[in-house]
Write a structure and sequence with these properties.
It is globular and about 90 Å long. The strands form six sheets. The protein has a four-stranded antiparallel β-sheet. A four-stranded mixed β-sheet has the order 15-14-12-16. A three-stranded mixed β-sheet has the order 6-7-13, covered by helices on one side. The chain has two domains: 2-46, no CATH class; 53-316, paralog of FGE (formylglycine-generating enzyme), CATH 3.90.1580. The longest helix has 10 residues, at 103-112. It is 11% helix and 22% strand. With 316 residues, the protein is of the alpha+beta class.
Amino acid sequence: MKKIFLPIVLLTCSLGLLQAQNDTMYIMRQGRVISKHKVAEVDSIVFPAVTKPIVNLYITTVLIPAGTFTMGSPISEVSRLSDETQHQVTLSAFKMSKYETTNAQFAAFLNAKSIGSNGRYAAGEYPTQALIYTDYDFGLNYFNSEWAPKAGYENTPVIFVTWYGAAEFATYAGGRLPTEAEWEYACRANTTKPFNTGNCLTDAQANYNWGIPYSTCTNNNNTYPGKTQSVGAYAANAFGLYNMHGNVLEWCNDWYGDYPTTAQTNPTGIATGSSSRVIRGGSWGYFAEYCRSAIRYGSAPGHFSNYIGFRIVLAL
């Protein structure tokens, strides 16, 4: 007696009926017999589990060239914070996603992994942690056993995503979250001013709270959108990256901690002693000063907010 391992096929009869019909079992695909076996020779039939294929997430990347830059901010920078200690950093080249990860992209990942309404991925690296939470304003909703963006917000950045969710998505996409050094280097794009746009960040350059511009800067429009906008909104920086200032804060891979004071090469942050992961970039609700290239924040990896999203780094 033997077991038969079957692909996805159509069995039109039971074994009992097949035995009544000349003791032969026919295996068919699309109406055509592809195999047949004597029923007396068959011990059992095993159907393999059907797994969902990796979906195309349509992630566009930009090559960020290798280089050396001064990370942090000078003491003279207006609104500078004490944790922005300047130090030299040298980085190897890397590829970064051109846009922040969208609601549509993250929903495709969740559905491909059959992640339910609790947002947990049992087979992932963080099985007990929620990757995402429902947001009815401009995020993702769980309905009829699937995740979907709120209508009209498919191309806005995913929000209510935890660090665990960002990390799991990055792995699924074949990449990782950027280090804090990579993020700042990519944001600055060879600039040294408070913003990659210069000394000011105007209402025409980023999605933030336009009512509070930076330092002595002014805006033409002080009534800001009050929500996320398309990941392709506003002009890209010199590296071709969009929304490195404002729209949403972005998770980085590093644990939050004090900067070193000596030169570093491809730093990955502190190894221990912190309960917070780094987030960078400012958001749609932040004042301009909180969107500076050098400003940094720390947050518990399980935290979620409509202010926080992410982008990823892919291998060269």
